[in-house]
């Protein structure tokens, strides 16, 4: 007697997802089983036609497919970051600030951005300027010590008959040791100048994802009102949960970022090839951010624009001779008594004339 074939059933559960005032039904596939089994007429038991590992346990002549098990429980790395503790804390900060100040959401985002950038990144920017100034001041001393070391290596090479390759090896080894000792003496290792980016970038990511969660109704912190960000905008962007259809915020973001990049490039008196590559890369990122900002909620693009504007103001402030004197930043070759006039003149000479 031929065995009776039975086919498994796929179970699909429905999740009720509530976003704003709209309740929707979304299918959530917990597991999916596809395969065949047979009823043994002698034992009256159901036997699978394939083993656990997926290799068929019957002849391929029957044309049966092996069993497959698919699950969607595993979250992606993006969702893991969006549900992480720092992002939840950022959501709590944004919601608490808006509730305590009573400001509309767009003003609360701008004020929170200004406060965080001024309280955290501005001191780090001052520290970065101090480290860069100290490293620049050491270059003259390093050049003198390098000439002395080169002379000593040449004398030693004549005594011991070193080849040019051996002389180069000893010169680089000893010069690296001397430079490291100078950095330790003045407490100005160049890596310390990168502390700003290691703090600013995670903060930018956490606040961006927090605003994304709050805009899409996936936040971990309840809002004061059900409308929330949907009515917290202004002017041409009344709904902060939707992208800016006019592209005013995205284009403004790109222009501000390009302006920051050009001001940084104009400060470099003799840029190296690597610095030129970095400048071109940042210009490309500034342009790429324009279409990205046009596809995300307006709350995120508004935060990005506010952060860039505050960063531009801080960069200009760090050029002020009076402010640098108050912060005790050592002088550098690029310092000027009229920095803003010099920037405007260099900008006009490079891009207008």
Notable traits:
10 helices; 353 residues; three-stranded antiparallel beta sheet; 58% helix; mainly alpha; two-stranded antiparallel ribbon
Distance N terminus to C terminus? 94 Å
Mean pLDDT across all amino acids = 77
Major pleated sheet: 3 strands, antiparallel
Proportion of strand residues: 5-15%
Number of helices: 10
Biggest sheet: strand arrangement = 1-5-6
Describe it for me?
It is a single chain. With 353 residues, the protein is mainly α. The chain is 58% helix and 9% strand. It has 10 helices and 7 strands. It has helices spanning 77-82, 85-101, 105-160, 164-186, 195-215, 248-267, 273-293, 298-317, 321-326, 339-351; strands at residues 4-7, 13-19, 22-28, 32-34, 36-40, 45-48, 68-70. The strands form 3 sheets. A 3-stranded antiparallel beta sheet has the order 1-5-6, with no helix packed on it. A two-stranded antiparallel sheet has the order 2-3. Helix 3 crosses helix 4 and helix 3 (105-160) runs antiparallel to helix 5 (195-215). The protein is elongated, with a radius of gyration of 31 Å. 17% of the residues are buried.
């Amino acid at each position: 007697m031929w065995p009776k074939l039975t086919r498994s059933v796929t179970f699909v559960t429905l999740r009720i997802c509530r976003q704003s005032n709209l309740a929707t039904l979304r299918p959530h596939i917990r597991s999916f089983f596809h395969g065949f089994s047979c009823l043994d007429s002698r034992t009256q038991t159901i036997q699978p036609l394939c083993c656990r590992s997926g290799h068929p346990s019957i002849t391929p002549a029957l044309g049966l497919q092996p069993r497959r098990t698919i699950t969607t429980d595993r979250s992606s790395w993006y969702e893991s970051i969006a549900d992480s503790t720092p992002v939840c804390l950022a959501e709590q900060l944004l919601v608490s600030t808006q509730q305590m100040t009573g400001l509309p959401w767009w003003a609360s985002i701008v004020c929170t951005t200004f406060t965080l950038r001024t309280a955290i990144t501005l001191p780090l920017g001052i520290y970065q300027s101090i480290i860069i100034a100290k490293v620049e001041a050491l270059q003259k001393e390093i050049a003198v010590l390098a000439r002395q070391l080169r002379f000593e290596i040449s004398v030693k090479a004549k005594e011991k008959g070193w080849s040019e390759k051996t002389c180069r090896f000893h010169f680089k080894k000893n010069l690296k040791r001397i430079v490291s000792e100078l950095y330790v003496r003045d407490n100005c290792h160049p890596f310390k100048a990168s502390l700003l980016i290691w703090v600013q970038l995670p903060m930018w990511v956490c606040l961006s994802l927090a605003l994304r969660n709050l805009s899409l109704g996936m936040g971990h912190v309840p809002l004061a009102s059900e409308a929330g960000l949907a009515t917290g905008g202004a002017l041409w962007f009344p709904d902060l949960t939707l992208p800016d259809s006019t592209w005013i915020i995205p284009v403004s973001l790109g222009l501000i970022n390009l302006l920051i990049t050009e001001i940084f490039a104009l400060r470099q008196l003799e840029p190296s090839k690597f610095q030129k590559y970095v400048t071109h890369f940042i210009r490309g990122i500034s342009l790429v951010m324009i279409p990205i900002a046009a596809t995300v909620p307006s709350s995120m693009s508004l935060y990005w624009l506010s952060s860039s504007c505050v960063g531009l103001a801080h960069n200009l402030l760090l050029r002020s001779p009076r402010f640098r004197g108050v912060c005790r930043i050592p002088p550098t070759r690029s310092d000027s008594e009229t920095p803003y006039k010099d920037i405007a003149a260099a900008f006009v000479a490079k891009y207008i004339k």
